[in-house]
Amino acid sequence: MHIVxxxxxxxxVFLIMEFMAWFTHKYIMHGFLWNLHRDHHHKDHDSWFExxxxxxxxxxxxxMSFIMLGARTGFWYGWPIGFGIMAYGAAYFIVHDxxxxxxxxxFRNANHWYAKGVRRAHKMHHKHLGKGDGECFGMLFVPFxxxxx
Length: 149
Description:
Elements: H1 2-32, H2 34-41, H3 54-72, H4 78-100, H5 113-126
């Protein structure tokens, strides 16, 4: 039963992180921390790194904190919570930074209808260069209007 609960918590946290990504993007990145996120929409430097990468660091620290809490105390829930956050961060990095923005030249020829829809939706979001406007969504729950066969 313990393993089933561990897996349930891990998957639940992974799904909750989709909401957190949407919330963080809409209300924090396009809100009071726009100064960190702006260079993701309009690159104003020559560095491979973006100020926007600070958000990855924040969630990595949260994830590591839960894993360490689980390792050093009796709070075993910290393990699946921390690994759920970490798994979502890895999936987000692969989908957003590698697949969509091509920070590494991988998955360039993915032509599946879902892949095209995710790219199309993200492209529509990046049409808005300012703080306001721009529809925000996660990587799993993309509005169906972007999926065309």
